[in-house]
Automatic annotation (TrEMBL):
The keyword Signal does not apply. It is found in: Peroxisome membrane. It comes from Aspergillus steynii IBT 23096. This is Peroxisomal biogenesis factor 11. Keywords: Membrane, Peroxisome, Peroxisome biogenesis, Transmembrane, Transmembrane helix. GO terms for cellular component: peroxisomal membrane. Its main location: membrane. GO terms for biological process: peroxisome fission. The chain crosses the membrane at residues 138-158, 208-230.
């Protein structure tokens, strides 16, 4: 019996919020709730206050992802150089290249409008609207490509466990088949979670661009779902 006591939930939450990823997810969850309340509140004053809170939280989160374009373009360089994704097929590789290129372009273009969001640039400099629209188009494309890639991998890449006889004997073949089956199950869960998260997040740029027509409360609810699912992975990572 282990004498080491697991950390309490309060300690785990503190670890979660001390990490940049965990704090960003916490702010995102609060922003999603604020967006829902601002949309469904009957009182205009209450709706305005929650809407202002949503805007301030959204601005705060932009600083957490300000340099994310570096990671995205490094991922593209890794795919081109063979440092990552060495076992991917040609189609999956192309999807991943396009996905990470679009995502990096989104972060980079969004960064160009940060001074407008902070009300530092004068209002007459309206080019930020066009830049932000192009940024959200790239974000929409990146999420769409991520969904396509995940569905493709789920249907054609993830195979069942190999249970055929191996060179290591019957016992070794069963053991290898069990390991392969466990690995495939984990990959399936990861892909399914990616589909749900990206599918929910797709509403954000889609509504912003007018390509999807849903209410702000629906978008906020989708943000809650995607944030909880993505935040669970961060929680496990910082508390492992």
């Amino acid at each position: 019996m282990s004498l080491i006591q697991p950390p309490s939930k309060i300690t785990q939450f503190a670890n979660f919020t001390r990490s940049s990823a965990g704090l960003e997810k916490t702010l995102r969850l609060i922003q999603a709730v604020a967006q829902i309340v601002a949309d469904v509140a009957a009182d205009r004053t209450v709706a305005s206050q929650w809407g202002l809170a949503k805007g301030q939280l959204a601005l705060s989160r932009r600083f957490f992802r300000f340099f994310n374009f570096i990671d995205c373009f490094d991922r593209v360089a890794g795919l081109l150089g063979g440092r990552v994704g060495g076992n991917e097929g040609a189609l999956t590789l192309l999807i991943e290249l396009a996905r990470w290129s679009c995502l990096g372009g989104y972060f980079l273009l969004e960064d160009l409008t940060i001074l407008h969001a902070m009300k530092i640039h004068p209002p007459k400099w309206t080019w930020n609207v066009t830049v932000l629209e192009e940024a959200y188009k790239l974000w929409f494309y990146a999420l769409s490509l991520s969904l396509v890639g995940a569905v493709w991998s789920l249907l054609f890449t993830v195979s069942g466990p190999s249970t055929g006889p191996g060179k290591g004997g019957k016992k070794g073949g069963k053991k290898n088949g069990k390991v392969a089956g466990t690995s495939n199950q984990a990959l399936r869960r990861t892909l399914l979670k990616r589909i749900v998260v990206d599918g929910c997040d797709l509403l954000i740029p889609g509504v912003f661009l007018g390509w999807l027509v849903v209410g702000d409360a629906v978008v906020g609810a989708a943000m809650v779902v995607s944030t909880l699912l993505a935040g669970r992975d961060v929680w496990g990572r910082v508390n492992s």
